Every structure is written in structure tokens, then in C-alpha cells.
Amino acid sequence: MITVNIDELIIGTCLPTEWRKSTALFNKKDSMALLNLCSEKNIAILSIEGFIKNGDCIMPDMNCIIDFSEFLKNSNTPEINNSINITRDFISHYENNDILIEFLLVRFN
């Protein structure tokens, strides 16, 4: 597995929703756009972590965490697609519409 640099992936797009220092954060709509990019480029979702804005601060939302590290030990396309589809379904049904999400993306050689 090779970590994907989100900065390079989103060149030429209007993504992310906002930056916190060097961390790209995506709202629900922009998360879907990022997932579409991942699908087009055969990039898997290794993990996501959600955050809630509280004034100028952000706080982790412990109900918005997914970790696919064990799931992706097999580096074939069905697992890559499953990581994207599961993440898409999770985010689309997540009750907090103000959530900001950090993604860790990987690709396989």
C-alpha cells in the first residue's frame, strides 16, 4: 500500500471544503466528490475520521470513524471498490450534516 497525497489528487478541483493547517477536510457533498475521484483513479479509502466544528476549533466525532486497514490487506479491486462504496453509504446516511471528514487514501502497485 502506498499513501496517496490528497493535495495532488485534488489539483484542479474545488476541493477540499477547508484546510486545517495541512489537513484537508471535506463536508458531506465534497466527500462524495472525493470518493468519485478515488473510484476513477482506483484509489482505496484506508480510513476516515469525522470532526465537528466548535467555533474556531474542531473536535473529533467518535461516531464518525472507519478503518479499513485489515479489510484492505488483499490488494485487489473488489476491496478498493468496497472501501469506496461502504464509505459513500456511511457518509450519505450520517446524521450530522455539518460533519467535516479527513480521509487517508491508499493505492496498490
Q: What's the structural blueprint in terms of helices and strands?
A:
Elements: E1 2-3, H1 6-9, E2 18-20, E3 23-25, H2 28-40, E4 44-54, E5 57-67, H3 77-93, E6 100-107
Antiparallel strand pairs: 1-6, 2-3, 4-5, 4-6
Radius of gyration: 13 Å
Which overall shape is indicated by the principal axes computed on the Cα atoms? globular
- The first-to-last residue Cα distance is 7 Å
Strand element count: 6
What structural class do you assign from the helix and strand content?
alpha+beta
Give unreliable regions as ranges: none
Task: Give short descriptive properties of this protein.
alpha+beta; four-stranded antiparallel beta sheet; two-stranded antiparallel ribbon; 3 helices
Describe this structure in words.
The chain is globular, with a radius of gyration of 13 Å. It is built from three helices and six strands, in the order βαββαββαβ. It is α+β, with helices and mostly antiparallel strands. Helix 2 (28-40) runs antiparallel to helix 3 (77-93). A hairpin with a 2-residue loop joins strand 4 and strand 5. The chain has a four-stranded antiparallel sheet.
